[in-house]
Amino acid sequence: MNFHDHFSQVAVDYAAARPEYPPALFAWIASIAPARGQVWEAGCGSGQASRDLAGYFAAVYATDPSAAQIAQASAPDNVRFAVEPGERCSLPEASVDAVCVAQALHWFDRAAFFAECERVLRPGGVLVAWGYRDILVPPALEAANAVFQHDILAYWPPERALIDAAYAGFAWPFEPVPVPAFELEVDWPLARMLGYFSSYSATKRYREARGADPVAAHAPALAAAWGDPSATQRLRWPLFVHARRKAAQ
User: Fold this and answer.
1) Domains, the chain, with CATH or none
2) What pTM was computed for the model?
3) Fewer beta carbons below 10 Å: N end or C end of the chain?
4) pLDDT at 46
């Protein structure tokens, strides 16, 4: 199955620089799942969420259509990685207690993916999909960050609008599950933030279109606003979560 491959060429940056999700999110997913047997993580990238899911479920089946992303993945022994699309996996019917999608559902053919969730989820199993919107930086960095973000704005793929809308209006399957509030925040040095910017799909598309690196171009201004590059700054992202439960039979 063809897919929009925005991340294979930046797989190393993606693995090194993407933020980790709050531990409370994974504890909550485990608490609403009917059991803690197996979970399927679709669109796993380099395994950011896979590693945390492994602490709560006996087995994690983590898939991504990008072989380059999977090559960067690492996780405990109870995680099995495979190069497969989100719309079709090799799991048997009614074999998982949960399906999770972290910052990836906007790339999927959702109708096909939701049908696959119906197939692989056990009765009472849950689908949990989440994502995060634009980075929020400290006041001292806001001006320099705004100039960088504006420079790459035209290079975001159209699916980015679905993130901005927090997946509003999706034709979700199953019944909704109430979701508590979660926060995504980190304390990073400058190099980690610049690496994160390098992992953007918009950065990749900018490089391809213009033959120049926007992160390198804006790094001096960001560094000047940052100060001591080894000092950490608190960075935050608005995190949204959707949860649905398949009917028990």
Assistant:
1) 8-245 (3.40.50.150)
2) 0.89
3) C
4) 86
